[in-house]
């Protein structure tokens, strides 16, 4: 084991001659979970990413659903790991403060074909080990979801489907990994891999990284990295999913996740509440060539508006807060592709679809076992620190601006900086002081919700941008350095 220093910047203290025991490529949810798990052993571990922040790829833009795995293909590795991951992430969320709401879900049938598919979906759920689904008639669907459009024929309830904060999930896992001694190497796009016999040199955009083992959790780039190790076993196609985010005033319309019934025409569009108090409509599913194209499109918006008018006309009368798009790593392989190459001391974690949010911690457990079987010596550590307690971004739990005792102890939590999301100067300061601080406005948004509300930064953007420019001063200074507006009682703003 080598003595290396954990770092949260793109310029680590580890030298070019440092040889890590394991380097994990990809600091999304899956890669961060794998690095965290491997750091529970007597190993030197580095977590490497091409971007300047963790969770800045596929992991940051999805429907943020914690899945039971009821609709996975029975007998697949994905089915097993999603089922296990549901419980592991639920427990981890309680320990770390990741916001989760147990809303439940209803698959809504609008056609005879969809209605006829419900018994088969219930049977599939039972084969996946989930036996709490129930087929309900149209009257019960409308009782539970009175704002649905006309024409519902029936539904299938999934009471344990939940919504979760994907941003906090990724950041918690990465922060936990760093707390366990993982070296975080950002701005390190892998260009090539050179096998020196016993060690591998990863030639990156910011210098070489030496390691004995490599875990490839590169998401959209996993197939490209896999080919650097001499394999050609799958191809990733970037699948763009566009979503519409509705204002918090729309939340009373949607108390549960409203799922489409998969049919011969595909999986369809869902409506879901979010832990931030908004409502999502989407996603689309468009296969692209460009692995960086996360722009929204007029065609996608028109498609979602037409779907929304059918599903819930009342929702379309509400204000739209934002639109965004994420890229999913669609694969030509029908299941998760997690395999070890003992000769190259290499593990592929590929073909991880959107269910990777739920399955991430279970995937990490599986990877550790696979690597052990392939020859990586794993000796458990006895000195693991407690996991981090993350800032709460969810509306279902008290936030700093609501906590009088916290404000009395630290007035920065009473200085509102972003009024749409009620983000305080204290939270901004805490983000700058965190083990993995943001380097840009998007990263700050994912850590605090600042600029994530109705005005999308129109009113607060300049002030928050100024705070970001002064982040070093704020990190090292006192409460007064954070500025912010005086606290305004909620009653005065209603």
UniProtKB/TrEMBL annotation:
Residue segments, region Disordered: 472-494
Location of the BFD-like [2Fe-2S]-binding domain: 416-469
Location of the FAD dependent oxidoreductase domain: 21-370
InterPro entries listed in its UniProt record: BFD-like_2Fe2S-bd_dom (IPR007419), BFD-like_2Fe2S-bd_dom_sf (IPR041854), FAD-dep_OxRdtase (IPR006076), FAD/NAD-bd_sf (IPR036188), G3P_Oxidase/Oxidoreductase (IPR052745)
CDD domains noted in UniProt: GlpA-like_Fer2_BFD-like (cd19946)
Pfam families: DAO, Fer2_BFD
Domain of life per record: Bacteria
PANTHER family the UniProt entry points to: GLYCEROL 3-PHOSPHATE OXIDASE, GLYCEROL-3-PHOSPHATE DEHYDROGENASE
Descriptive protein name: NAD(P)/FAD-dependent oxidoreductase
Native source organism of the sequence: Streptosporangium longisporum
């Amino acid at each position: 084991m080598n003595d290396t220093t954990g770092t949260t910047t793109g310029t680590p203290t580890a030298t070019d001659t440092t040889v890590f025991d394991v380097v994990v490529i990809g600091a999304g949810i899956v890669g961060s979970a794998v690095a965290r798990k491997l750091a529970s052993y007597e190993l030197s571990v580095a977590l490497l990413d091409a971007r300047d922040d963790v969770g800045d790829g596929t992991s940051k833009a999805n429907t943020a659903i914690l899945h039971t795995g009821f609709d996975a293909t029975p007998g697949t590795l994905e089915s097993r790991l999603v089922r296990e991951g549901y419980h592991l992430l639920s427990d981890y969320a309680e320990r770390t403060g990741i916001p989760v709401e147990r809303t439940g879900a209803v698959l809504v049938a609008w056609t005879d074909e969809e209605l006829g598919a419900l018994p088969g979906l219930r049977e599939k759920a039972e084969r996946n080990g989930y036996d709490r689904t129930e087929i309900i008639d149209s009257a019960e669907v409308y009782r539970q979801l009175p704002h649905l459009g006309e024409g519902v024929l029936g539904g299938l309830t999934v009471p344990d489907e939940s919504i979760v904060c994907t941003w906090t999930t990724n950041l918690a896992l990465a922060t936990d990994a760093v707390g366990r001694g993982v070296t975080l190497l950002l701005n390190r796009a892998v260009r090539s891999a050179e096998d020196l016999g016993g060690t591998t040199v990863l030639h990156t955009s910011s210098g070489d990284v030496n390691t004995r083992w490599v875990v490839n959790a590169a998401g959209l780039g996993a197939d490209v990295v896999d080919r650097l190790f001499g394999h050609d076993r799958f191809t990733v196609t970037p699948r763009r999913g566009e979503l519409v985010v509705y204002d918090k005033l729309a939340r009373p319309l949607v108390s549960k996740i409203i799922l489409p019934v998969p049919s011969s025409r595909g999986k369809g569009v869902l409506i879901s509440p979010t832990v931030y108090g908004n409502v999502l409509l989407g996603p689309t599913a468009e296969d692209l060539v460009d692995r960086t194209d996360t722009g929204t499109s007029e065609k996608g918006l028109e498609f979602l508006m037409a779907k929304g008018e059918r599903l819930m006309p009342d929702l379309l009368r509400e204000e739209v807060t934002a639109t965004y798009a994420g890229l999913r790593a669609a694969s030509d392989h029908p299941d998760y592709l997690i395999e070890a190459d003992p000769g190259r001391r290499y593990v592929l974690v590929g073909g991880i679809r959107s269910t990777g949010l739920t399955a991430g911690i279970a995937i990490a457990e599986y990877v550790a076992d696979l690597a052990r079987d392939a020859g990586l010596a794993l000796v458990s550590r006895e000195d693991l620190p407690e996991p981090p307690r993350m800032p709460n971004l969810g509306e279902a739990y008290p936030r700093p601006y609501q906590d009088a005792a916290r404000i009395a102890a630290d007035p920065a939590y009473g200085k509102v900086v972003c009024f749409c999301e009620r983000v305080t100067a204290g939270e901004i300061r805490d983000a700058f002081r965190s083990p993995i601080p943001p380097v840009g406005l998007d990263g700050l948004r994912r850590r605090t919700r600042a600029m994530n509300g109705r005005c999308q930064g129109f009113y607060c953007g300049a002030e928050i941008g100024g705070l970001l420019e002064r982040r070093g001063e704020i990190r090292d200074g006192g409460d007064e350095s954070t500025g912010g507006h005086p606290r305004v009682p909620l009653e005065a703003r209603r």
